[in-house]
Structure formats: structure tokens, C-alpha cells
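Pair request: fold both.
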Amino acid sequence: MNTFKFFDEAIGFHTGWKHTLERHIEEGEYQNAQTIANCHVCDLGNWIYGSGSRYNHLPSFKLMSSFHEQVHRAAAEIVQVSNNGDKDKALELLNDHKGTFSQASHQLVKAIRECNNELDDKLQKNVAHLFLDEELMGAFIKRLNRKYPHQPT
């Protein structure tokens, strides 16, 4: 999986989630608050608690995980208010720019971008190290030559 593209998709999904919640609230559609509270089931959550967990030493990863959980908890609270029949209050909580959902969403997008940048920096340093270390570079070229033998033209 291209992690950097995945981060862009995660930002788009979590940004768009607000509109989906808003539509469900306006239509009076029942939503399972317990399912929404589960931050492990969306694509970002699957990555955070799955293959992405190898990056949990990064400060931005820890922030991203924390804000991701907060977004899910805040969304579940809003859904519960809506399910209890207070559509106006649910929409107010959802659209309050100083509210928990909006603040956590904003911080989540910021943390996803920071994690993306941190991973990009780490990748660039690893590539630079490879090219600066003659022994590593020689081993890398030998492996490439074995995998892709030169074909005379």
C-alpha cells in the first residue's frame, strides 16, 4: 500500500464523514453509536492498529492515534443525541467549530499530515544513507543485477 496516498485518502474520508453524519441526522436515520465509536474499524483505524503500528514510536503517530479516537468518540456522542430524537442539538454539536468533533477533526487532519511528513523524511534519510554507504550501495546494485540481469541490445 502506498502510505502517502493512503494518508490523503484518510484525510478525505474523515473530512467527508462530517457530511455523511449530517445527512443521516437530517434524514433522521438511526445510526449505531457503538459502531461509530469503534476507531478500529475504519480504514485509518485498521492501519493504525495493524500494519501502521510499526510507526507508533513517532510523535505524530501517537497524536494521530489519539485524535482519531477522539473523532470517533465525539461522532458517537453526536449520533446518540440524534438517535434520542434531538436532531437540532446533534447538528449543533456536529457544526460547532469550537466543539469536540470539529476540534478533534481539525487536529486529526493536522496529525495525519505531520505523520506523512515524518515518514517521508525517514524514507528520504534511509535512501540517502543507502547511496552514501558504498558497501550498502554495492550490495544493492548486486541484488538489482541478479534480479534484473542486463540484456544486450
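--- second member of the pair ---
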Amino acid sequence: MTAGKQIFPIIFLALLSVSCSTAPTVQDDKAAVEAVSKARAAAFNAGDAQGIAAYFTSDGRLLAPGKPVSIGRGQVAEYYQSLFDQGPLILESWYEEVQVDGDLAYGRGEARVSSLDPTTGDTLRSSSKYLNILQRQADGSWLTTHDIWNDN
């Protein structure tokens, strides 16, 4: 066998293995973005401020209404801990739209939060609309770069 004939099967197999590798589809990416949102909601309902902050990039920004911008995981955790220190909260949230373009994505959604009034014991409810911007990380995971909301 000549050198050209010997190398052809090796090149063919290499090209075949590359073409068979499975890059994430847009649907896979959308599902991953939605999973981040669900994990953040689960951490919120567990009162886990650090757990929420873990889903932000190291320089992620939380833009809560009427508050200074929280930058970085430490400040994000501090913001959420200040909420949890006031008493238990229950969050229901869902995306109404998720879009992915390369390594950036956004999720637009709605949320409802219930809490107990510490003086009366009455259940308080609020609802809001929100927008999350996420970025794919080097390991393929998605983290929040920006989170902003306002009341309905």
C-alpha cells in the first residue's frame, strides 16, 4: 500500500468523528437556560442566597428596583440574604420567551412572590416581569450576566 492509500483511512475516520460530534442545538441551549432559571428559583425558595449568586458570572449585575446595582456574586448574595432575613419567601417564576444567539441568551418572564407580613401574619403577594441575560461559559454552562425586574 502506498503512503497516500494508508493515510486516507485515517483522514476519513478523523473527519467522520468530527462530523459525528454533537454540538448543542439551540433547543439544547434554551433548555439549559431554562434550567438555570429553575435552579435559581429553587435556591430562592430554599433561602439560599449563595446558591442564587452561584448562577451569576463573577461580574454579574443584579438591577433590583429602587436599589443600587449589585455587582458580582458577593453583592448578589448580600442582596438576596437581606430579603431572606426578613422572613420566608415563596417564588413562582417562568420564562415566557427564551432566545439564544451564539454564546448569549436572554429569558423574559414573570414572577410571583409570596411572603408573610411580620406584624399581621397576612400573606403578601407581589408580581413582576423580568429579563435575564446569560452567557455561555468556557465549559458550556450558562451563567447570568444581568438580571432586572420591575413590578406589574
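Observation on the second member. The two ends are 75 Å apart (CA to CA).
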